[in-house]
Amino acid sequence: MSICMRKTRFVFIVFVVLTSEVILSQESHRARPEIPNQSALEALPKDGGTNWNRLVFEQSPYLLQHAANPVDWFPWGDAAFEKARQENKPIFLSIGYATCHWCHVMEHESFEDEEVAALINAHFVAIKVDREERPDIDSIYMAACQAATGSGGWPLTAILDHQKQPFFVGTYFPKHGVQGRPGMMDLIPKIADLWENQRDDIYQAATRLTEHLKTMSLIQPGQAPTRSLVEQAVSQLSDRYDAQHGGFGQAPKFPTPHNLMLLLRHWYSSKDANTLKMVTHTLKSMRAGGVYDHIGFGLHRYSTDRHWLLPHFEKMLYDQALLVMACAETFQITSDEAFKETASEVVTYVLRDLTSSEGGFYSAEDADSEGEEGKFYVWTPDQVRQLLGDKDADWFNRHFQIVAGGNFVEQSKGIKTGESIPHLRQSWVEIAKADDKDIKLVKQRYEKIRQKLFDHREKRIHPFKDDKILTDWNGLMIAALAKSGRAFGNSDHIEASAKAAAFVWSQLSRDGKLLKRTRNGKAGLQAHLEDYAFYIWGLIELYEATGDEQYLARAIDLSALVQKEFADIERGGFFQTAHHSETLIIRQKDIYDGAIPSGNSVMALNLLRLSKMTGNQDYDKQAQSIFTAFSKSLHQYPSGHSFLLMALDFATTSTSEVVIAMGKSEQKNGAMLKALNARFMPHTVILQRTGDDDPITKLAPFTALQKAVDQRDTAYVCRNFACQAPTNDIDVMIKAIEPQAK
Questions:
Q1: Which of 32, 205, 573, 650 is the most exposed place for a label (fewest CB within 10 A)?
Q2: Is the pLDDT of residue 32 over 50?
Q3: What topology is assigned to 19-217 in CATH?
């Protein structure tokens, strides 16, 4: 779709540029000036200065990256829009995030360029937004870009009128046009001319696009969805499944572990071997590919090819968290140590490189170092040989594909660099067979080599680390660590989860409400639905991992706040922003489960689990309102809502509530709890009862009479609204929860 200006001598097209088609400038990376310390900041004029713009006073690393640009950037706020009105200029809005490779490219080519900056400053009031801090703003203008162009991405560029309405949208623009694509030097004068001479046409176009967005956002509720949608989603995923390389579709390939988690739940109900195979094959293919960091661990953002070889190298906290969860659940089903190893390695990476001293988790690491994408991660055969010697180098280079001429194609140049991305083409079993060695010895050799390469790599210039701490992404990692801790019997994971949960509550909440972000001890920004939903998810997982009632109590309190502050009483579901939040051109309700699940999807499952844990049916009614609110979207594209379908799966199947009453001679996490934790039980909630005055009896009154029998751990199992006799026998307990269990 293009937005056309009537009565003009040319048609003004809204452009989107796909990264695979972009030809980038080869100019060198310009080093950013060092950000001044706090005392120096206090001495700066609040409107910026000759060396700094207003972004220097922000906390977002992304905004600070642009603080020394010659563009006269403003942060989003009233000051920018008031200046635009006073000077009669449109708004130049640029949205991105700190570890976005193409955001860096556009900065180096355009925003650091004096000529481009002079044009922007002359004709616009320029605003920078960190999409991770303000997903509410990003989602609106990304929706505008997708509606106008059929595609989107970051950096996101939008030109707005004084009412914040977009009349031009696109993504990346170079300084000069290439291959018929507009450059900033051509684009800005054309937009300025339209603004000056055809303002009425601009207002009409902006109003039409805004009205279209409002219509799209008014999702009408439908009939309660049925379980058949889970089957449809699995069928859609199966149709897109790459039987050769794992994953779904061709390229690019994103991890999207919640798709795998939905498939695991389908397997649990159907015992369809093909469903489980899609999960195990995909996880092992990603782990073997270049999309996984074989030297320092952790998952890169996505693969640009179908082989999982060439990634976009940034590492996002949310990808690590979701992968850990998918691997932990797959391990519970298969007992395959490969999934435990992958999850444990990812946790090692997160705790080593993405964790603050206080226990909160940083957001991401960049793809670039020294101005080049992937440079930190790639190797030549000679580099490996110099470090390891001939024998080990030959072994590593052969098995991890470190080859002469390289396999790494730097995308901005479109040519091989001569360096290689470590990846495997054989399983460890196959490698051990080829080496005629025991697999344990082969892995021990690999670990010694890996540690040497890691120690050397640590001396390289590291990619930039986005060290802001976000409530929503921390909630995901809290949930992941609690899940993996239970599945693997790893108390260190659970302790890290608990420490992070305490950090969020102490540093990112005020008067019982959550905040969005903290950095350098400065917390701020109103929390969005995702912040509450993901943190509540983490608290529920942490309660099941520890039996500590404070987590369940906090989850209950925050869920009540979500209902009060975010609920759409008229149409059901939850808005992305609270009722008292800043008024934007539309108020969105998000349901699409993309790179991360939506707040509504996670909240639906939270509410269903709380309903079973507490016996409070109001939670179930709230969850049902989410299903009906988004029923039409679910029917249109089931597999695009995989996490919401996980909630629907929970709501439409037999569920069990298990209370473990602790015996006098038993400790928490005794044999019964260990047996539960070791199994994949997606339709079961677990509560713990420790004594007569246990606070759980106030949170879940139905537990009041459920006490230990014969001073031994005792399981009370209720299934399908029918309760079984209490038992001290683990096998009896499991059979009551899973009648089909052997």
A1: 32
A2: no
A3: Glutaredoxin (3.40.30)
